[in-house]
Every structure is written in structure tokens, then in C-alpha cells.
Amino acid sequence: AQSVTQLDSQVPVFEEAPVELRCNYSSSVSVYLFWYVQYPNQGLQLLLKYLSGSTLVESINGFEAEFNKSQTSFHLRKPSVHISDTAEYFCAVSEIQGAQKLVFGQGTRLTINP
Amino acid sequence: EAEVAQSPRYKITEKSQAVAFWCDPISGHATLYWYRQILGQGPELLVQFQDESVVDDSQLPKDRFSAERLKGVDSTLKIQPAELGDSAMYLCASSLEGTADTEAFFGQGTRLTVV
């Protein structure tokens, strides 16, 4: 079985400041890793994912996440946030073998203050 | 742009009543998921369909919950009877193949309040 822990339930930052949302996972088998974002009154959207290859993955809107196998972490970072980044962010894992079964963390609410 | 459609967006029901949610996945997506998201927690998988067949319903409380996808397209999730603890957001998602590396697309969800 897998589990995902997001260490911060809420993260308030000022606009244009850097941010890091932390995610640690536990699994006895190899997993794929995902970050989903949920904007107010919208469904979850895939932000980025790590499947294989380079451990640093990027999204189209400036977020990046680095897979660290030894620390079982997949932290999400952005060097300069915008008001429009206000949302809830969910880290998730899925076993590589077989059908996708996403196991989500509890979520981190990112609030950007002007 | 294709999207997963869910209805209703909001539902208030009294405990012990029956309630149903509907989901229409993106056209051509063989895999359909129902997740439950309790306030302050991440989504948890309830049931997964591959076409019309259930692939995983290990977390579905089968004494009161049922799900069907009769023609392998749209799906209905039913709760009977509803309990106070069922208050949550119910999310439907679909993906083209359902393999671990395939992106799942989520609908906006149905927020259920049981009173």
C-alpha cells in the first residue's frame, strides 16, 4: 500500500515570493508521482508528473518538482508566485504496475497575498 | 475543449434518503473513476471501471453504495440510505487507457450535504 503526506495544510506567501510545497510518500513498490491543482470551484487538473528519466520535471506555468528517491520526496517549487496560483495542490502516487490507482495526500492550500 | 461532466453540482439530502450522482466522461475514454473527497482530505478512490466492467471497488461501502456504467459510457453512483458521514465532494474522472502513466481528467464534482 502507498501513502502520501503533505506536510503543510496551508501556505500563505506574498506575490512574487518563492514557494515550496512539500510532499513525502511511502511505498513498498515503484510508483509514479503526480501533482494536481484545484482552482476555486473547479475540478482537479494535472500540473506535472514524474514517470522516469530526469528527476526534475516542469509545468507550463513555471512550477517544478524534483523526485528524490532516497528521501521519498516530490516537493513542488515555484521561484515567483502570482495571485493566479492561489489554489489547493495535491500530491499523488500510483503504482507503476497495473491499473492507475491514485493515492492522494491531504492537500496544501496555497494563498497568495498582494 | 472536452471535459468530464457531472451533475448535480450540489445536492442536499436528508439522512436515510437515496441520492444519485451522474458522470459523463470524455468521449472515447475507456476508464472511469469515482473518488470521494471529505473536507480537508485528499480524494479517495471508490470505484474504477474499464468500459462497463468494475476493475476495483475495494473501497466502495457496498452495503449502501452502488455504481454502474451499463453501456461503458456514462456512469451513476448511488447511495442508499445516505448517512451524515457521507457528506463530501464526489469526483468523477476518466482516462483514455487507465494505465498508471495515463492522465486522469476530473470533473468539477458533486458536493453532497446530508442533513
Shape of chain A: globular
Percent of residues in beta strands of chain B: over 45%
The succession of helices and strands of chain A, N to C, reads EEEEEEEEEEEE
Write down the Rg of chain B.
13 Å
Helix content of chain A: under 10%
Q: CA-to-CA gap between the ends of chain A?
A: 41 Å
Assembly context of the chains = heterodimer
3D shape of chain B? globular
What's the gist of this structure?
Chain A is mostly beta strands. Chain A has strands spanning 3-5, 10-14, 19-21, 24-26, 31-38, 44-50, 56-58, 64-68, 73-78, 87-95, 103-104, 108-113.
Structure, described:
The complex is a heterodimer of chains A (114) and B (115). Chain A has no helices and 12 strands. With 114 residues, chain A is mainly β. In chain A, strands 2, 5, 6, 10, 11 and 12 form a 6-stranded mixed beta sheet that branches. In chain A, strands 3-9-8-7 form a 4-stranded antiparallel beta sheet, with no helix packed on it. Chain A has a two-stranded antiparallel sheet with strand order 1-4. In chain A, strand 10 and strand 11 form a beta hairpin. The radius of gyration of chain A is 14 Å and the shape is globular. The mean pLDDT of chain A is 94. Chain B contains no helices and 11 strands. In chain B, strand 5 (44-50) and strand 6 form a beta hairpin. Chain B is mainly beta and 115 residues long. In chain B, 37% of the residues are buried. Helices cover 0% and strands 48% of the residues of chain B. Chain B starts with a strand and ends with a strand. Classes of the chains: A mainly beta (114), B mainly beta (115).
